[in-house]
Structure formats: C-alpha cells, structure tokens
Amino acid sequence: MNVQELLHKVAQSADKRVDVPTAPPIELVALIVRWARDLRQWKVSTLADFATVSVSTVERVERGERVSEDALDRIALALGYEKGAFHEPRLPIGPEAVAEQMVETYAHLEPVDVSPMKTQRAVREAAQCQAFLVHRPGVPDIYDQEIAALTEWLDFASFELSDDIEIEGGEEIPRRRLYSDILSCVSELERRGLTVLSGVMSAPQPGLPDWTVAVLSITPKLTDPGAAKRKQVFVDKRHVAMPNLGFADVD
C-alpha cells in the first residue's frame, strides 16, 4: 500500500471501540516506521541491519503487511521505541488525541542542511552564528570532555572572528591556527568513533530578525553509520527560542 492508502486505512480504524484494548493497526505501524526511518534518513537496508531482520521484512512492514511480533520488536527497538510498541494491545486514545500527539512530536521540526565539519568554512559559518545547539543522541558521557572542548573553542572563535569585538590586552590568535585547533577537536571526536556534522539554522527572535544558530550533530558511527552522508537534520524550533539558546543538548 502507498501512503494515501495507509492513511485511509488508519482513518477507517478510528471508528473502532475505544474501551477495548487492541493492537495498533498495522497501517499505523507502517506509517510510524516509514516516518521514523525518514527522519533518520536511513535506507531500508540500514534499518534492516540495525534491526537484524531482512530488507523484505522492513518493506512488508512499511506496506502494512503482517510480520512476526519478534520482527516488529526488533524494528521498534532499532528506531528507539520500546519492545511491544508495535503489537501489544492497548486502549486506543482516539483520533483527536493521536492528532495532538503527532502535532506535538512533528509539527515543530525544521530541516537544517548539514555537512561534515571538516573545513575552515564550516568552522567560520558556525562561529559567526549568535548561538549554538548541540544534538548528541546516543553519545555516551565518556565523550563529554571532548565535546565541551569543541564547544568552548567555537565560543572563543565567535569572539575572535567578530569584527565588532576587541579583547583589550588580549593577544590576537591567527585565524588559520584557530581553525586548525577547532578542526583538531573534530578530528579527535571522529578518531574516537563519532561523526560531527554542522549547519546553520535561521532562528529569528523578537527584535532580532537575523539571528542564526549553529547546529552541531554528533552521533556514534556504530549506531548511526550513515551520518557522514546525511544532508539534513531535523531541529525542534522550540529549542532555538531565546531562553534555550546556548551550548545545550537537544533531546
């Protein structure tokens, strides 16, 4: 089934009783799996590898066809859901509540173009932003020191590279050396098994229409091997509102 057919089937299922525990409609599971995979920009084969199921199994799920509960659990866990999320009976919450949940989860997302942070241009563009946002899903705490070093260097670069700020009594650091130090931090994270992507997000604030935010996406290569080829990440616009700006994680 294509997306329109799946949506039609989901709409039909909304007429079922809401006082009897039932398993999620397979058509709804198909939409969730497709959407979650697309958000990660994973190929079908990538999800199949992480879930340790066949490509044909993932394709069947995304077409709204039945597969084993074990396969559904493997796919759910690979996408960050709990075991049983795609097949265990539960009380339906009704179409209005479903719509509210979908809006809460997806309506605030905005795509941001990203690329590997390997060039002086990438460093310069990040440093010229007015704020920074670090997204590090699945990155263990053992990397905190290296990530903090990178963000501190970028924070320092935002001052050093600004034409509007002069540090009285401070020694000017050659820009090429500054770029090199920042890219060395990135290289160390890459050497230790992480992928570092960066991009710039337009985030106008009240009275500040030109406000921009540097988005840093840091993910483990083992659990997100396709990250280096990723062209976009999705950022919740609520995380770039003025009170939330700074070096903070995005959950």
Description of the molecule:
The structure is a single chain. By secondary structure, this protein is an alpha+beta fold. It folds into 2 domains: 3-107, 434 Repressor (Amino-terminal Domain); 110-244, no CATH class. It contains 9 helices and 6 strands. It has helices at 3-13, 26-40, 44-51, 55-62, 69-78, 95-106, 120-127, 144-160, 175-191, and strands at 109-113, 115-116, 131-135, 194-202, 212-220, 232-236. The strands form 2 sheets. A 4-stranded mixed sheet has the order 2-4-5-3, with helices on one face. A two-stranded antiparallel ribbon has the order 1-6. Helix 1 (3-13) packs across helix 2 (26-40) and helix 3 crosses helix 5. The model is unreliable at 164-172 and 246-251 (pLDDT under 50).
Short description:
With 251 residues, this protein is of the alpha+beta class.
